[in-house]
Amino acid sequence: MTRYDVVIAGAGHNGLVAAAYLAKAGRRVLVLERLGHVGGLAVSAQPFPGVDARLSRYSYLVSLLPTKIVKDLGLGLELRHRRFASYTPVGDTGLLVDNGDAGRTAASFAAVTGGRGDLDAWERFYAMTARVARRVAPTLLEPLRDRAALRDIVGDDVAWRDLFERPIGQAVDERFADDTVRGVVLTDALIGTFADPAADLLANRCFLYHVIGDGTGDWNVPVGGMGAVTTGLAEIAVRHGAEIRTGAEVLAIDPGSGEVTFTDGAEHVVTGDRVLANLPPAVLARLLGEPAEAPEGAQLKINMVLSRLPRLKDPSVDPAEAFSGTFHINEGRDQLAAAYAQASAGRIPDLPPAEVYCHSLTDPSILGPSLRESGAQTMTLFGLHMPARLFRDPEAKREALRRTIASIDSVLADPIEGCLLRAPSGEPCLEAKTPADLEREAGLPGGHIFHRDLSWPFAEPAGAGPAGAGPTAAGPWGVETAHERILLCGAGARRGGGVSGIPGHNAAMAVLT
How far is it, in rounded angstroms, from Cα 438 to Cα 441? Predict the structure, then answer.
């Protein structure tokens, strides 16, 4: 039986980060990946036959990946900043947040809100989140603090109250008067998270991770797509001696001996002094023979290639400006609340809230030369309040897609379907992914993109962590489990979620320190 210092189950980006750190430190590392490729859901793909466009099919932007990890590992990754943070259509005008022109942003706020009050509140609020980001982000790569210690690091009682202690929706309602502005702020509390921001602190946890990334909260575009991130990490791990086997599905893990049984067509057993699970905790529980409740994802992702950008109702804004940042669709505060109420009652929302952006406007390298010359663009849509429970009926996906397309069309000057590029087969370049699809295709229980509900970035008492997904990470790094040999190194670890590499780093540190 072959013995390794560390066996890593799963070659998603966190597993690759852990493998790179450990191999660089001289450990003998084996990475086992069920799929035929590395990268997990942080990959680039050509989903439309005959169309030379490499889309970030599942994950699509980078915010949480710390610069320290990039530098430590020598990852040659280019991230491009988006000048336009967001655009939100409102009737025949819209709210434009232009990071390169404060005057234009101010004029847009005045046109939409009728005054300056919400702009002043916006600037104060995001100055506060920026301070919190600078203070909290470095701690994500360090041993866990307890709640009191992290509060001391934040050093701002108002920020602590509004971000950590009371529902984020209450803080937003107090700070902002305009429904549109409230909604723009609240969407960061709902990405991949089914929660009521007016009552549920789960929305706070989601919001926190979306605004503290790398100490800035900037959501940047990876040049070459997400595949550039994970391909680079795999190359670094292999260069330092890690062994990566694709098409190798882990069947069982013995927590006492460290034996890992896997199949690549034939069954094999290897032993790891430590076993790192870059897997959803519910999957790890199954491999350990332990009970686990199922988490629930909540999103609809639509990937598109357009022959041209759609026209806007607002003639003062160039579509290339509006779609290069986050383009908000029916995401006012009241619209979000209505969609949540309908989804909670088991109904697909009548007017699904969603947001889109066009990767190729910032990074045209993902398009082949002829597509670039033709003016084609990629478009990615992320739909909110689409929990897995809505997709038990096979026809639900068709209806969710129909209503989401109608929601897009309601804020545009011409229908999005008329802008879709056609593949050589004649089919429109559009694919949709529901939580049911992610469970079936990627093995994510409940289609939960964060593997389970996000946790606070501090240590909590036993039993106070995220519920419903198997082994709960505890210990100094937030990756430890009840089994000494077994560590979580995926998004389900404390301080996990998103494309960050943080759990992979922290699992490696737990092995090395």
Answer: 5
pLDDT value, residue 293: 82
Residues 308, 443, single domain; the answer is yes
Q: Which of 395, 413, 447 is the last residue of a domain?
A: 447
Q: Where are the alpha helices (DSSP H) in 266-416?
A: 281-288, 319-324, 333-344, 359-362, 369-374, 396-409
Residue 182 lies in a domain: yes
Give dist(CA 388, CA 410) in Å, integer: 25
> How many domains does the chain contain in total?
3
pLDDT at 464: 62
Whether residue 55 contacts residue 45, with contact meaning beta carbons closer than 8 Å, is answered with yes
Q: Looking at this protein, which amino acid is placed at residue 15?
A: G
What HEC string does 303-335 produce? EEEECCCCCECCCCCCHHHHHHCEEEECCCHHH
- Give the distance between the most distant pair of CA atoms in the chain: 72
Share of residues in the chain with pLDDT > 90 (%): 93
Residue 469 has pLDDT above 50, yes or no: no
For helices 147-154 and 117-136, the axis angle rounded to 10 degrees is: 120
- As a whole number of Å, the end-to-end CA separation of the chain is 27
Say what the pLDDT of residue 201 is: 98
- pLDDT for 467 equals 44
Check whether residue 71 and residue 104 sit in a common domain: no
Q: Across all residues in the chain, what is the average pLDDT? A: 95
Question: In terms of domains, do 318 and 273 share one?
Answer: no
3-class secondary structure, 5: strand
419 has pLDDT over 60: yes
- 240 & 315 share domain: no
Structural domain includes residue 120: no
Helix/strand/coil for 80: strand
pLDDT at 13 > cutoff 60: yes
Residue reference for tokens 């039986």: 1
Q: Are residues 329 and 454 in the same domain?
A: no
Confidence at residue 152, expressed as pLDDT on a 0 to 100 scale: 98
* Cα–Cα distance measured from residue 39 to residue 259, given in angstroms and rounded to the nearest whole number: 24
Q: Are 230 and 15 in contact (CB under 8 A)?
A: no
| Residue whose pair of structure tokens reads 């419903």 in the numeric block | 468
Give the number of residues written for the chain.
Answer: 513
Residue indicated by tokens 């210690």 = 149
CB 66 within 8 A of CB 140: yes
Q: What is the CATH number of the domain that holds 286?
A: 3.50.50.60
Which SS3 state, helix, strand or coil, does residue 373 take? Answer: helix
Query: In this model, does residue 68 exceed pLDDT 90?
Result: yes
| pLDDT tens sequence across 322-370 | 999 999 999 999 999 999 999 999 999 999 999 999 999 999 999 999 9
Helices (H) and strands (E) in the chain, counts: 18, 18
Could you tell me the residue range of the domain that residue 470 belongs to?
Answer: 2-41+67-77+224-294+449-512
* 475-494 pLDDT per residue, tens: 899 999 999 999 999 999 99
Does one domain contain both 346 and 414?
A: yes
